[in-house]
């Protein structure tokens, strides 16, 4: 892609660069630098919205493009193809004015150094405008409107034969912005008043006591109290980890795989007299935990180490409680990270299931008799959740499953599952295990 000021500051081309970072470089969308280089906040918001939208509906948009083109584009014209996807997304799902969606998107081809493609992009988008209803009806008949890779769709259908349509529908919607109130620093009433004065509509959550939803969504720098440590961004489903652990004064608690530190901080915000160790394998991710704790006025022992190599970090004193927010497929948070659909494979899930089992079996001996082990994932796949805990219990007779008396989620055989969109939450799984005294 030619790089000059016009291309670098064009929001549509910035969106294409971000999409390319995901699909070609296998980056997470949030890690792409393509959007941060835009100087105008409105352009940045537009580019972000377009990039997320295209990745949310990628396979559907590709199906549309294939049908609208008279012949396939050559592989080297991938940028032109993605420009067409961007235009189709604007015409199909966004509120962009149709003339802007067509004309400005087509003109981007000129900025790419491909003036021959201006007419092609224009013709494809105008054809979609004329035949939109016909194409969308055919798409629904084909099943391509579900916008999920085949392996993931089949696994969700197998695991959730009754609920799968709602899961897929939730995955294809933008998630709301939820905040967590830091009760060590903020007064809940005053904070809510400040949010209202700043122009946000706010809603509490029926199950997560520290959660507040704000609309419209905004960058954290524009949210009152964020820099002062009054609140953090965290979905209510993740906030429920605090209730599952239920920290008590003086307890030694390990937060394994803790980065970026949301659950670590929440435990300390509600009980600052615990002895908390936050562990993560990567030093740069532990640095994020330290940064978040400083902003919130909290402190814990933070360690960069491999949790499975216990001799490298464990000091020999067992923990009253362990929270393992295990590495997982993240299939419960697709509505926040739509690129997950295209960056994951069934084989990758197989590998992460093995990693989860190793972590469970390695950390379990570090819980003292009578102690608690909370296993959590942001996945909806049963092989990472119910089946993982079933296998663990079959191997550990001293482990007893405790089913929390809560009203949220669905009770499985071996834990509690929240499905995406349920009670306005992300998809999450919790299993609570007690070690025999």
What does it look like?
The longest helix is centred in the N-terminal third of the chain and has 26 residues, at 117-142. The protein is globular and about 75 Å long. The mean pLDDT is 95. It has helices at residues 5-8, 11-25, 41-56, 58-68, 78-92, 98-111, 117-142, 150-159, 164-171, 188-197, 236-245, 262-270, 283-296, 340-343, 346-363, 386-395, and strands at residues 177-181, 201-204, 211-215, 231-233, 252-256, 275-280, 301-304, 319-325, 367-377, 399-402, 410-411, 416-418, 428-435. The protein is of the alpha/beta class and 437 residues long. Strand 6 (275-280), helix 13 (283-296) and strand 7 form a beta-alpha-beta unit. The chain contains 16 helices and 13 strands. The strands form two sheets. Strands 5, 6, 7, 8, 9, 10, 11, 12 and 13 form a nine-stranded mixed β-sheet that branches. It has three domains: 5-147, N-utilizing Substance Protein B Homolog, Chain A (Orthogonal Bundle), CATH 1.10.940.10; 177-233, Sun protein, domain 3 (Alpha-Beta Plaits), CATH 3.30.70.1170; 236-435, Rossmann fold.
What would you say about this model in short?
This protein has 437 residues and is α/β, with parallel strands linked by helices. The protein has 16 helices and 13 strands.
CATH class of the largest domain: Alpha Beta
Order of helices and strands: HHHHHHHHHEHEEEHEHEHEEHHEHEEEE
| Termini Cα gap | 63 Å
Number of helical regions: 16
Q: Which regions are unreliable across 5 or more consecutive residues at pLDDT < 50? A: none
Q: How many strands in all?
A: 13
Annotated CATH homologous superfamily of the largest domain = Vaccinia Virus protein VP39
For the record, the count of structural domains works out to: 3
Provide the structure class: alpha/beta
Percent range of helical residues: 40-55%
Mean pLDDT: 95
How many strands, what sense, and barrel or not for the largest sheet?
9 strands, mixed
- CATH-scheme architecture of the largest domain: 3-Layer(aba) Sandwich
- How much of the sequence is in beta strands? 15-25%
